[in-house]
Amino acid sequence: MEILYPRCAGLDVHKDMVMARVRCVSEPAVDETRSFATTTGALIELQEWLSSHAVTHVAMEATGVYWKPVWHLLEEHFELVLANAQHIKNVPGRKTDVNDAAWIADLLAHGLISASFVPPKPIQELRDLTRTRKQLVREVSQHSLRIQKTLEDANIKLGSVLSDILGHSGRAILNALIAGETDPERLADLARGNARKKRAELIQALHGRISAHHRRLLKLHLGLIDSLQQALATVDADVGKTLAPIEECARLLTTMPGVSELTAHVLVAEIGVDMARFPIAGCCPGRRCVPEMTRAPANAARLAPAKGHRGSKPPWSRPPGRRSASRVATCRPSSSALKLAAAPKKPFSRSPPRCSMPLGTCSRIGSNTKILAPITSLAAIAPRRSDACSDDSMISAARSNSPLRLPE
């Protein structure tokens, strides 16, 4: 097999150790394996050792977060390749760190490793912020559930009347409960907005047996929620500052149906803005990709019908056959996101799906694509406009290379 990189190295990265194997077939030939610690001084020694053998390309496996410090110290000196562990899995057998490093070096030498996407530093920082925000939102939700559990234990059915117990009405009632108020009528008078119309239901729901223990728990969880919301505000401000240089790309993404400002931030943080990095801009990542990149387009796809479509689903989300509608609906926003972030710099405009084959070689009839003789007339591939224009007439017109006449 042809060797593409004659002077390369493979790294098997662990938490406290890096096993490195240099594979150089050009003169001077070198085949050596050494282990290094993961401290900064040891990684600098690794870089010097690789440079002494004139190594040009280095590959490593994406092992948790342990590969990141190694990557940051070596990226200025070598051409780095980050490999997906599923793609370079070795044959089961005598698996050792030395064999793994040798296997990675051999695959790299022959160009058999598909490089994973590693975004530039600004995008990495934005990604860290958006993922931190997601975790903070989850923690707020968890504490909200804990509050509902405490109220249920006290037999206070506040969550059965109010849709959001952390809204204006809910917070006012919870603060009064923590302060020691137990009269249901006085508590119901604290409701605001539309919740005032449910005063009778609130009075019934606020009859309970709340104790000092319940009040301590409610105060604890509400304090934690307030702290988390302050942290969320700080993270949102940092996201705005980091996103400022590429804010226009994120704004264009919001022109797509179902894509909110937050979803646009997540898309930019996960895929960046340089689409030349990806060989194909198309479908949504699969289940083995990062969860953030899979969930964001899926959420946008579920929201898309409510923004510009009268029907239950947009036309491109109704696939033929047994394919999942949610999966196809997920693909369209992801593909559009890639195209919008690439270069067009114009708002999203919906267009019906087009056949992927060159014009003049196929005709789309109904939900099937049939290969026909070369077609030179656009009328032959026009969509059916009337019941009087049957599939047979379109096929015969295409095969005869004559225009298809539609009824007036």
Protein architecture, described:
The structure is a single chain. With 408 residues, the protein is of the alpha/beta class. The chain folds into four domains: 103 residues, eRF1 domain 2 (Nucleotidyltransferase, domain 5, 2-Layer Sandwich), CATH 3.30.420; 121 residues, Helix Hairpins, CATH 1.10.287; 98 residues, no CATH class; 38 residues, no CATH class. It is built from 14 helices and seven strands. The strands form two sheets. A five-stranded mixed β-sheet has the order 3-2-1-4-5. Strand 1 and strand 2 form a beta hairpin. Helix 1 crosses helix 2 and helix 10 packs antiparallel against helix 13. The longest helix is centred in the middle third of the chain and has 33 residues. The C terminus is likely disordered.
Question: In short, what is this structure?
Answer:
With 408 residues, the chain is of the alpha/beta class.
Name its key features.
Nucleotidyltransferase, domain 5, Helix Hairpins, alpha/beta, five-stranded mixed β-sheet, 408 residues, elongated, two-stranded antiparallel sheet, 4 domains, disordered C terminus
